[in-house]
């Protein structure tokens, strides 16, 4: 490990041990460097690296603080990495989505408030009878975001949102090229919402799986046709 890696590990351990809590200010740079037996340059590089992944917040003229460490904040770093993947890896994200999202839907059927579930029906109604593909995709993203949040698990919700957002382009292309996809998507969304309203976790999970597999199968076939 490099000296900077050592510094990162030392700061991380202070957070894990509870010595530094969310919102706490780090000791002054010279004091912390002396305590950890590191050079100030190495410590500075470690702080810069941890700030990039939203673990630390460097405030000019004030000091360096531990962030809230909320999952949604930390997952931003994952989204940054995901953005560098090429289109030909989107299938892997759909596979990940097929694992994560049905689990979130199942939990939402148990934990999501009745008011929020009714709000999903209103969201679907807002599309009207003939939505454009762009309107459908935006509605789709919001529909799944709300359900993920309704799972009551912030970590799972953040993972679902990070993975789901990266399949947006594939969903848009499917809407343009595959006949009947708008109607099919709305039908499956209605089925998911109704299963949530009926508090049927198994049914909701099954419909969520069917819904995601439809996009995945379409993409697999499209990639086969291109080769």
Briefly say what this structure is.
This protein is mainly alpha-helical and about 230 residues long.
Give a description of the structure.
- The chain is mainly α.
- The chain is built from eleven helices and two strands; from the N terminus they run H-H-H-E-E-H-H-H-H-H-H-H-H.
- The protein has a two-stranded antiparallel sheet.
- Helix 4 packs parallel to helix 8, helix 6 (114-125) runs antiparallel to helix 10 (181-197) and helix 7 crosses helix 9.
- The longest helix is centred in the last third of the chain and has 26 residues, at 201-226.
- The protein is elongated and about 65 Å long.
- Mean pLDDT is 83; it is low at 80-87.
- Residues 1-69 form the HTH gntR-type domain.
What tags apply to this protein structure?
mainly alpha; two-stranded antiparallel ribbon; 11 helices; 2 strands
């Amino acid at each position: 490990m490099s000296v900077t890696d050592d510094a990162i590990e030392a700061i991380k351990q202070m957070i894990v041990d509870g010595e530094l809590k969310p919102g706490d200010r780090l000791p002054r740079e010279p004091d912390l460097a002396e305590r950890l037996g590191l050079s100030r340059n190495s410590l500075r590089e470690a702080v810069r690296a941890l700030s990039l992944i939203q673990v630390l917040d460097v405030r000019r003229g004030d000091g360096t603080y531990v962030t809230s460490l909320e999952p949604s904040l930390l997952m931003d770093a994952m989204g940054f990495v995901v953005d560098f993947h090429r289109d030909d890896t989107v299938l892997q994200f759909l596979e990940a989505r097929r694992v994560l999202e049905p689990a979130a839907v199942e939990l939402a059927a148990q934990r999501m408030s009745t008011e929020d579930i009714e709000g999903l029906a209103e969201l679907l109604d807002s599309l009207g009878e003939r939505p454009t593909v762009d309107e459908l995709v935006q509605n789709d993203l919001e529909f799944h975001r709300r359900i993920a949040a309704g799972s009551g698990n912030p970590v799972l919700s953040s993972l679902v949102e990070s993975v789901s957002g990266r399949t947006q382009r594939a969903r848009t292309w499917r809407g343009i090229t595959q006949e009947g996809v708008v109607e099919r998507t709305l039908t499956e969304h209605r089925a998911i919402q109704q299963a949530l309203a009926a508090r049927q976790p198994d049914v909701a999970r099954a419909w969520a799986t069917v819904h995601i597999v439809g996009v995945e199968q379409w993409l697999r076939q499209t990639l086969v046709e291109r080769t």
